[in-house]
Every structure is written in C-alpha cells, then in structure tokens.
Design a protein that fits this description.
The complex is a heterodimer. Chain A is of the alpha/beta class. In chain A, strand 4, helix 14 and strand 5 form a beta-alpha-beta unit. In chain B, a hairpin with a 2-residue loop joins strand 4 and strand 5. In chain B, helix 9 runs antiparallel to helix 10 and helix 17 packs antiparallel against helix 18. Chain B has 28 helices and 5 strands. The chains are: A alpha/beta, B mainly alpha.
Amino acid sequence: MVDKPSGSNTTSDPASAVPAPPVPLGELLIKKRLISHQSLEQALELQKRWGTRLGDILISKGWIQPFAFYRVLAEQFKKPFLNLMEIPPDTSLWQEEELDHYAEHLVLPFKYANDRLIFACADPSPEAIAYMRKQSKDAFDFVITSKFDIIWLIQREKNDYLVDYAVNDLAVKQPVHSAREVFTTGQLFSIYLILTLLLISLTLWPTPTLIGLNLFVGLFLFINFGLRLLFAWVGGDTRIDVKVTDEEVMALTDRELPTYTVLVPMYKEPEVLPIVTAAIRGLDYPLSKLDIKLILEEDDEETIMAAKELGLEGMFEIIRVPDSIPKTKPKACNYALQFARGELLTIYDAEDRPEPDQLKKAVIAFRKAPDNTAVIQARLNYFNADENWLTRMFTLEYSLWFDFYLPALEALNIPIPLGGTSNHFNRYVLKHVDAWDPFNVTEDADLGVRYTQLNYRVGVVNSTTYEEANSHLGNWIRQRSRWIKGYMQTWLVHMRHPIRLYRSLGSIAFWGFQFFIGGAVLSALIAPFLYFMYFLWLFTQTHALDPLFPNFVLYISLFNLLLGNGLLIYLSTLSVFKRHLHHLIPWALTIPFYWILISIAAYRALWQLIHDPFYWEKTVHGLTEFEHEKDSGHPLNEPKVEAR
Amino acid sequence: MNQRLRRDNIMPGPSYVFQTQRSFLTLFLVILVLSACCIWLLNNHYVSDIAAWRWAKILGVTGADEFRLEHFRFIYPHVPFYVLIPFTLMPQGMQAAAPYFVSALAVAVLLALWNFHLRDYARPMWQRALLILLMLIQPTVLWAATSGGYTAISLLMFYMLYRACLRMIYQEDVRAFIMLGLILALYFFVDPITLFLFIALVPFLAIIAPRKILLESPFSVYIMIAMPLLIAVFSWAYLNWIFEGSLTIFTSDPDSAFLGGWQDTPASEWLRHYGGKFFPPFVAAFKELAVFYPIVFLLIPLAARYTNHIKATIVLLFHPVIAVAFASHKYFLFHPIEILSLVSAGIMAELTVIPFVRRWKFPAVLVLFLFGSLLGWQRFSHISEPQISYWYQALTHSLSGDLYHSDARLGEWLAKHNKPTLIDERSAFRAIVARGNGKNLYLPISDRFKIQTRFRTPRIDLIVVPDPDTLLGGRDRINLRYPDLYEEGMAGFRRVYNYGGWRVYQNER
C-alpha cells in the first residue's frame, strides 16, 4: 500500500523541503491513541536530558511500534508513507559507494517523478535533508518510510555488493595488510631458505648448530621474561591505571553524548539472546542514541526466530549476513559496519556483560586521548572465574593481560593486540583503514597493529566487560587454537615487509610486537621441546644432552627454567591484585599445567594455519552454570578495578 | 588517602633513577671521600678477610682454564662475586682494592639515591648535605663502606627493602608488592642474612600490608610477598643439587655462608653469650640499637601524628632486633652489628617520608645523629671482633704492623714462581691475592685439583701447604689429604719455601 505523494518541493533548499509541522508529533500520537499522556511526558522529559528526537526516544523505549510511528510521522510532515517492501524503489538510482551513507542517514533514492528525485526517508532530520539535497543536485522530494524497510531493502537489493565489500575490501585496497594470502612468495622463500640452511648446517656442524638454536631459544625466553616483568611493572603504575574517574562520568551530560553503534555478532546462540539484550539495555547511555545491530547469519534461523520472538525495541536492528566464505566474525562485522550510524562503535559478544558506564567512559577516554586515537580497548574479565580450574587459570591469564600488559603496551607505545570484544572504535577511522580483515581469525589483534602502523593510536580504558570463561577443555582448546592461529596470521601479515614495519613502528614498538605477538606464539611452540629435554634429562640423567649445553647456554637455560618460570608464576599471582580476586592467588601455583594446554592449542593452530587458515573455530557459549550477578560477586553496577 | 598525602607533600612520588646532575655529583663526591678512606685504611695495613677471600675467589675462578660459575660454589651468595668480575679488567696492581671500591661504590649509590629521594621530598640542599655528611660519619656506615665486605651492598638492599615497605604502607599498590617480593629475592643472592630479615618481617606484614587485602585473604598477602624469595631459595637448592650433588648442601656444608658464624662460635664473644637463645640477644640487640641509633627513638614523637609513620617506625624499631635474635638463636651472627648496621639504611628510608613540620625537629635529628655517632665510635673502639677491631685500629692509625706479612710474602714468592701449583684458597686466600692472578693455580673448586689429589703423589710442580696446627691450616684441604706433608714432605718433592707457617714443595722431576 502506498500513500500518494501529496506535497512536493521544487526548490533544493532543505528548509523549504521540510514544511514546519503544524501539529506537534506528541499531540498527534496521543490523538491517534498510540501513546499515553504519561509516556509522552516521560519521553519529553527524556528528550530534555538526551537531546534526541522524540520519535527515537519512543521507539528505543518500546513505547510505540516503529511502523505505526513512521505512519504518524508521514502524516505530521504531510508526506506519503511508503512500504518499501511492497513498492520497491528504482535501484538503478542507487550508487553502490553511497550505500553506507544511505544507511547512515536512513535515506534511499526512490524514483524519479516530475523531474524530481524522490527519496524514501525514515528520519527527515536537517542532516538527512542536506544529504538528499547533495545527492539530488536538482529538485527533490521525499516520502516517509520505516528505517527497517531501508535497512532490509539495501540488504535485499545489494547483497552481492555488500558481501563483496565485507570480504574483499581490505584485500583489494590494502593487499599487504590482508591475510587472504597466508604466506607470501617472499615469506615462503625465506622459510625455505632458512630451513635449507638449517639442514645444511645440521648436517655439517650438528653440535654447534644445535647449540646455536639452544642459545637463540634461551636468549629469546630470557628477554621475554624480562619484558613480561617490565610490562607488569609499568602496568602496575596507579597513574596509568585509572583513565576515567567516576566523577568525570558523573559530570558528563547525556546531551553531549554521540550516537553509539553496538555490534553484537552471534551464531547459533538463541539462548543467550535475552541475556545480551538485557545487558545492553542496562547500559548507562541514552537508549535513543544507541544503534544496536544484532548480526546474525542468514542460515541461523534459530537465532533469527528467537530475536523476532523477543519483540525487541526499535533500537535493535537485525542484520542478516548472507552465507559466504570466509564465515568469520570479522566478515560479519564488516557487513554490519555498512549499516552503522554511530560516531563511535563497539562490539560485544553474545555472552558479554559490560559495566553499565562503559560507553560513557569510552566517550570520555576518546575526548581525553590524542586526536589520532582510533580505538579504546576496555578490559575483559570473567564472571565465572570460580567455576573450575580452567576458568580460574583463564581469569588469572586475562587479568594479567588486560589489567597489566595492555596498559603497559599503551604506555610504551607498543602495538596493542585488541581483545575480541569491547573495543570502542571511531567509526570513521575504522572505515578509513578498511575495517577488519575477514581472513584473519583474530581480526582485532591485527587491527590494533595495523592502526599503530598507520600512525593511529590504540588506547585502553578502565572499564570491564565480564565474559564467560571457557569451562570445557575441548571448547577451550578450540578457542585458544583460533586465537593462536590468528596471532600467527597477524605476525605473518605484518612481517611481510619487516623493514617497512620497523620504520613505521619505530624500534620499541617493533620489538614489542615481535616479542608480544610473535613471542607469545613462539614460546608456546617451543615449550614442549624444552619440557621434553628437561624431563628426559631428569628421569634418565643422560649425558647425551650435555654437548648442547655449554656453560653460557646452561646458565641462561637454568635462569629461564628457575627464575624465568618462577617469575611468570609470580606475575600470575599478582594478576588478580587489581580485581581483589585474592582467593585465586594460590591457584596461580598450578599455572604451568595451563601452559601445557596452551602449547597443545598452539600446535593445533599451526596445523590449521597450514591446512585450513580461515576456518573460524566457533566457541560455544552458555556452557557455564554460573549466573553472573549471583555468583561472581561483581555486580554490574560496581566496577571492581579500584579507582585511586 | 594517597592523593591527600601527596598533596600535603608527605609521601613523595616514586622515582628510582638518577635524573639530575646533582645526584651524580653526590655520587661522585661520596665515592671520592670513601675511596680516600679506603686508601688510608689500606696504607695502614688493613686487610679485610672477606674482601681478600672474595678477590682470591675471583682470581681462582677467572684464572681457571674455563670460566664456570659453579667454581664460586653454591654455598655462598653469588652477587658479591659477580660485581667484582668487571674489575679483573683493571691493571693488576689495583685489582686487589676492588672489593673495597665496590663497598664504597655501593654506599655512594645508596647516599645518592637517598639524596634523590630526599630531594623528591623537597628537603633543601643544605639539609640533605648535612644529613649525608652525618650519615657518612656513622661508624656502622663508614665500616660498611670501607671494609670490603658484603655489608655495603646489603645496606643498599636494606634501604630498598624499607622503601618497598614504606610504599606498601603509604601507597598500597601492586608495585609495592612487586618491589618487596623481588627485593627479598635479590637480597637472598646478596646476603644470607635475608632469611632472618624475612622471618623477622613476617609478623610485621600484618602492620604494613593493606588492611583490605589482609581482611579479605591474609594468606594471599604472604604468598605475594614471600613467593619470589621462596622461588629464589628453591632455585638455589636446585642449583645445589645440579652442581653440588645435594639439594641441601648450602645448609649443611661447614663452609657455607648460609650457616653464618656457627663454626666460629668459640671465637665469637657474642655467640658464646647469646648463641642458641632468643630473648637475651633480643634485649642485648635493643641496647646496642639504643647506643648506635638513638635517633630511632626520636622517630616515635616525630611520627606520632600519623598512623602510617607510626607503623613504619614500629617496623624499624623492632624488625632488625628480632632478626638479630633469630640469627643469634641459629648461631648465625658473629656480631649483632652485622644486622644492626643495616638500621642506618632503615633510618635513611624513614627520613624520606617523615615530615619535619616543626622547627625543633630537624636540629633534634642532627643532634641525635651526632650523639649516635659519638656513642657508636665509642662502642666500636671496644668491639673485640677481630675484623672490626683491625679496621678501627687501621682507621685510627694504631694497627701495629702488617698482620699478614707472611701471606703477602708467600704470594710474592708464588708470583715469581708461576708454575702449576696445588693450593687451597680457603687458607691461602691472602697469598693468592698477593700473587695477583689465578693462572696455574689448582684450587679445590676445580676438577684438576680433584684429579691431582686422587694420586698418592700429585703430578704437579708446586704444592703449598700451611701449618696444620693453625685454625686455617687445620681446615686446609691439602693438609687434610696429605696430613704429613707440612712436617715430612713428600717423596719426589723438595721444600723450596718455608716462612711464617707456609711451606712450598717443588716436584723434583
């Protein structure tokens, strides 16, 4: 059904394109009995505080059905209302490179009529009018439609383009930064050359070669231990610990907050859908300034149905990602990014429980950060730390990583490998760097390094998102092997031109990258050899290994074995200091067993890198029997990292 | 709380690097003064046993065919050896002074660091200069700085240990735990006294550790602080197993530095009186503390207005004394000054945080410092422990002649006859130092010594053996292996040297 256009404008002046509504929208809605007086009063009250349009408030609060609202909006503007799903527009008028702007302004070229370009518009804001004017270059007019019609129609009509963009944009524009090619010819040649020389050397001079390898490993681990201590020390500095104080959050007014896009990629997780939507509703942020995208795979009917059945408020939008290869989270996010409207953008996983003030803290952190800051990483931790040994170890590891290492990396200007979620992006910069690499299975880590290479800054903020720690061993191995595979991909991508990388990062950041990204992988891979040699010697007291350990190598190896490993265990005990999870400290003594699991995952990752590099090992969520608020002892409203 | 303290300029911000020229100037001046003192002492025939022994070890280990750390043996802390190794690059004539220079350097670094921290606290320059001067004339500090022993490095470690404790009291951050834990671990490799200092510190952790963590999980506080030290001790035991053959050699070998002075109990007046006891040495040490450091008692009224200052003062007042009691109970301490001398560093750390808000307080500190120095010098003049007594006599120019003339002469003779020589550095350490290098020496730490002593008649050019009736000679390994050698000689060897209780036999083939 189409309402005929009743008014038109022959001028391109935006002001004249939007006739002043004679009747206020609120009154119209009451008159039509779509909302109550009470709702209107509350919405008007919120409007004063939030500074957004009344319609957005009503829709985000779920006080009105979007479809009904847009009809009334059309009536108010004396424009026809159009159901685009029934009356499709003339897509030949669309420009593919403008699709993301259409989604941003909720505007679509509809058709040409009477020498005028007619747009379908869901929100005739001054910005949207200005955009229409710019696009039409001539006289234009508009009809009103629903924002969902615009989003769904773009997806339906331009699917191939959107998918191609999501998959290939980075690979086409910046092939050097894409993991689509796992090993470049140069890298393959280098590997071949190194292995050949190694084999020749082993044949001609077996003992000196093995001593050389042993020395390399010893020195590498020695430096690695030293760096970890340095990171823990720097990360322990209270001055860099708290960036945004509670007072600063309190001082922030809702009016000044920008629109925030929240991406929630999910796959076959219908059971956690109510939890994640509740967590997002619980965010301390004006709902009408939230642009929430539930990113669901087209073949995941289960979750799509569950989302529909929930009857979510109008601020939630479902983005269906068409089935295509690679089937990865970054590809899904790239796809959804084209519909994002927020100035800032963040990603939450389905099982995430961000602290309520996280978005506000991110806004403040951006304001306080240098202009070239592209992303702010929030801390991640687990709500089911006490579930079993594995979750305890995971919590110790994550606490050390996010509470100590990442702030230290930021302070030392070393590329920060972003965590999988709760990274808060400047959307424009994200688009500018061609977003995530869909072929990299730790796309966030890769992006963090790419940002630094492109002279953007990556920051961290003192707000935590609580996730579900993997409590099942198989699931944990799958997840960890994906992470390590992603680190391998990231290292390989950025080391295609080491000299260029060195020049773009500088020496500290370059070596920090080598040891923090490359080192994490290498140490996991070489650990089993060291375990084997040690236990072989321990149980057999063989002297066969003696020639491989001349004095200087022996001393370094002993240092690493005793003090290096001891230091890592010690740092694990300290890791939970900031979170006051002191009861986990004795468990840190068992962390060497966890290192064995990491090595197993590392070899699995290496195997996959060669045989199935883009395969995304799905981590199953919702396995925990813990309920966050009840069991973790960290209510969402109480940040646990102490502000000093 | 911390912010308030910072605002009120009570607790300085943490900073541990020398950033100013003045700190370097302080370092340079103090090194000059202390080096002059060392030269004065050495010219007055002062020879520190521990310094000579350490340098002999260095010469033995670096002079061996192959440089191996295990030649130092894992029954002594190794850091005091490692800091000396670079001095082997110096001209040979100056090398023997290296242990004294290292002691002077350690105290100079300590005073420069103190100056830096005092400056951080905005104390005027003249006050800092005065405090440093008064600290330098403290007999315990001067003794540590010029006697060539471990104590100087120990002083530096103790200062950092107390700074870490103070940080824990005032700032309660994770860095305080890291500092305290790692300093204790490093301290273990510097001085075996650490174990007693740690045990004595354990009860005080309840005072200095953050109350919130103590209430939540007291066990975790102890793990966070003790774990690095436990790892250090375990590592040491492991190295003992690898290189010495048993995990517990360092706690059982009679020569082990970790056993302290128990072997010399008869020679120690302190151990004869207080060895194996706890409360009597506690009381005696408290009296000694009062004599050397009356200023400690002034810290109580100075700190009275502030809970944290009181905590710090209580620790300083009782911790070293309890450590003395523990160490005496285990027959470790030869003399309480070995631990009480460290109180100087504790006071230095304390003065970086205690405010002098009233005018009378700074002069009072100076007067008590001076008074403590006078009493300390008086006390030093009566200490019977030979090494301290020799040092005091050398300083006051009253040491009668060269006590170790015979060792020096043996060393010079051996230097002239530089041939493969079987010798035990534990008895002949002064002679080895006088010889000037460790080349061609077959010392008990080396495999070649063990090989030679397996033979009934060693296949070597020279054998050096001391009089077995002396204390050191009785422990000499060559004497133990060849008991009649000193008196009767050995078939195939003839005596080529005999002076001052030393004999050298030369292979006739």
